[in-house]
Amino acid sequence: MHVRESPFADEAREMAAAFAPAGWAFFGHWHLEQSRRILALSREGASRQETDQAITDVWNTEQPVLLRNIAMPLGRFGRGIDLEFQRRSQQRQTLINEAIQCHQEGRFAAAITLTLTQIDGITREVVGTTFFKANAAPTEADYTDDSTLAGIEGNLPAVRRAFSQPVDKVGRYGLVSRHGVIHGQDLSFATKVNSTKTLVLVGALAEHLESRADDRARRWRRVRDREKSSRSGRDANGRLLDDRGLEELYMFRADFETWVYNQIAFERTLEHRAAVERAHAHLEERGLSRRNFDLPVVEHDRVMWTFRSPGGQFLGSALAMPDVVSRPIPDQRWTWDSTAKPASPPWVISEGWTIAQGDPTTPNWAFRGFYTG
Question: What pTM does this model have?
């Protein structure tokens, strides 16, 4: 979709022109009718203070749920592409959620300061330089695009100037300037209006930067995989140092076997072709090679599969559900973690298989989560 060519484009440009110079970042989750109402007020000569207060009221009273979840899109950054970047983005999401809580409790200084630091980090990671620059070089990204409302002309570049305004002397200015806030130059920045503007900027940047974040994540994963491919041996826990794809395989197992469980539990059948197609789709989502995957057992109530990692380890999993009448439905799960491929499923020969009713416990199945480390 080319937003600039849509019927709404001219109206969006006018809203951006009216609100962005004051630090309001327009994007797709703005309340349309209320934005039109405030735009009409602006046309009629309403002061900046009046429009600031009106927009603040909308975000905090008309759509507080959207403000509360403003950082949620960050959790998608790098999803299915690069887990390290996804982890960092979700940790940033957690920190901004803390800022939102501060905002809701009226602790606006804490909310603004914490949010500004994360905007700085997000844009440095995705764009390569901070969003906050009073005089950006002509060669730098201009924060415009053809596919999002946040990227409409005159929007984020104007917001960037507002947030990058130099404050060289200590005083009471009440600005959204990062320089004034972080360097202690503005002693009266901590207002509900400024806190709302800062959180809304997170939403606009998340909308604008998502596709760029995916591109960056792909590059990082290629670089990281090349570095890992030169490693050999195992760490003190027995995990391969060349652990390419292992955590992605953990996520694949969760995705695929959730589907398998539902097929057996609710459809009472498991068809081989459908299982292969579903597995291949999830492998693609996680950036894993189909060539390394094998699905030797697909029966009406159980499945077994294996995957050879780039580091040469065979990882496998098996799920059996012999009783779908009981509630809750019991299941049996096993994992395989070896340099050799399993010769048979665990219900035939259990040797080498590990019971995994919770998370897998063997070294190469380890997954450290998203919000730690």
Answer: 0.86
pLDDT confidence of residue 137: 74
Q: Are 259 and 278 in contact (CB under 8 A)?
A: yes
Neighbours of 148 (CB within 10 A): 21
Residue 188 — φ and ψ, nearest 5°?
-130, 35
Residue-wise pLDDT for 292-351, tens only, equals 999 999 999 999 999 999 999 999 999 999 998 888 899 999 999 999 999 999 999 999
Q: Of 280, 251, 275, give the one whose Cα is nearest residue 263.
A: 275
Residues 48 and 23: beta-carbon distance below 8 Å:
no
